Amino acid sequence: MIREYVLLFKENADWGAIIKYLGKDFVPLENSREDIMLDAGGEKGDCHINVYRQAGLVVNGNNRIRIVYDEGIMTAGGQETKICEMHISRFSGRHIDCIKLAVKLAKKYDIILESRTHEQRAADLSSGIEFGRAHMKSFAPQRVGDALYDLMWWHLCGISQAGGEFVLRPDERLPLRRLRVEIRKLRAMMTVLDEVLVAEAGKWQEKLRSLTIKLARSRELDVALSNWRRTGSQRRRYNRDNDGLMSFMRKERGSEIEKIEPVFKLKNFTPFLLEFMLWILSDPVKEDQEDLLLEKVIDRRIWRWYKKMTKLVREHPDFANDEKAHEVRIKAKAIRYVLQSISGQAYGDDSKVLRHLKRLQDALGVLHDNYINEELARSIALKKQTDNVLAYQAGMFAGSERAQTMAVRRLLPGLWEKFIDEWEKCYG
């Protein structure tokens, strides 16, 4: 089976320099010009791609690894985006050799991983979608041994694209959130598979967990800033110029970003993702588990999570215990991430049960975020007692978060019942 990897260059990468960097054994083959016309949004010709293609390379005189480097402009829905990418396909030899080559390039150039074709990216652009990966790829019916490669590459491309957006716009809230969510999706899938993977999977799980921990503080500050802004817009006599709390939290976030940016620089982050893929290529599924159907493995773990959720809610039906409510949230989030993953759908919930699960998860998320915000506000008030304005604003923020928590908590039993009803209809 031929495996294809797309490395999307995020900087000007001269083909001649790449050849020189790879070494004298890599020789470019024929050149060709290709125009691809696409039917975008039902209007023929609205979307087109002009590609200049280097058709391949010879490695030591043998067609062992084929590399294609494309440049051009893709236009969709009136928007233009530059194409600058490298396809690496293995014709013979080992996949591992190909990924090792990709690691070597990723340490030299700013690169993100891509799973979509030109046509898929053009269709996304014409629909106004700027972030995503190959869609509608169902992994569930496959054997674990067969599904693992494509499933993990699909996840890594999502993480890589989110990482590329974060590096480009680290000061914005959404790119950071997307990056953290994408990493957590892969962690959820690794948890589902932990019984069929070799023990070394735990090391990679811990590495992924460390990345989400690094992003956690910045994410918490983003939520706090958003909630405080909302609180400010609802207050009379609000003076943005005298908003000491917002200035303080923005400064804290800037300091956090400075700490974590080196980890997510593409020349560090992309090789890490490719090294994860090298581990996947080392056949990490236990030999006696390879023929299990992925959906059977997933069903077993999801039902375990579901039963744990129902037990927790039976014991705490009013969701008044913050710790237990957070446990329910973690299980709900994991179930949703896994169900999205096996359908190949990066975002969006395509069933009624998942939509109700998301509403429950979002409400539980508000409880968790408000708890974090209250603790943050109290710590600021204690630290800044000499700053009367800041201490006052921090106290006001803590109070507003507590009021919202009480309101959301009253909604949770009803959201839980709606989710349970839909779950039983679908899976009961």
Topology:
Blueprint: E1 4-9, H1 15-22, E2 26-28, E3 31-40, E4 43-54, E5 57-59, E6 65-76, E7 79-90, H2 95-108, E8 111-114, H3 118-126, H4 144-168, H5 173-192, H6 201-234, H7 244-264, H8 266-280, H9 294-315, H10 322-343, H11 352-383, H12 388-427
Antiparallel strand pairs: 1-7, 1-8, 2-5, 3-4, 4-6, 6-7
Helix pairs in contact: 2-8, 4-5, 4-8, 5-6, 5-10, 6-7, 6-11, 9-10, 10-11, 11-12
Polypeptide structure, described:
This protein is α+β, with helices and mostly antiparallel strands and 428 residues long. It is built from 12 helices and 8 strands. The chain starts with a strand and ends with a helix.
- Shape annotation: globular
Strand adjacency order, main sheet: 3-4-6-7-1-8
Rounded to an integer, what's the Rg over CA atoms?
24 Å
pLDDT under 50 segments (min length 5)?
A: 37-46
- What letter string, H or E per element, gives the SSE order? EHEEEEEEHEHHHHHHHHHH
Number of DSSP E strands:
8
Helix segment tally: 12
Mean pLDDT: 82
Classify the beta-strand content into a percent band.
Answer: 5-15%
Search tags:
two-stranded antiparallel ribbon; globular; six-stranded antiparallel sheet
Quickly describe the structure.
The protein is of the alpha+beta class. It has helices spanning 15-22, 95-108, 118-126, 144-168, 173-192, 201-234, 244-264, 266-280, 294-315, 322-343, 352-383, 388-427; strands at 4-9, 26-28, 31-40, 43-54, 57-59, 65-76, 79-90, 111-114. The longest helix has 40 residues, at 388-427.
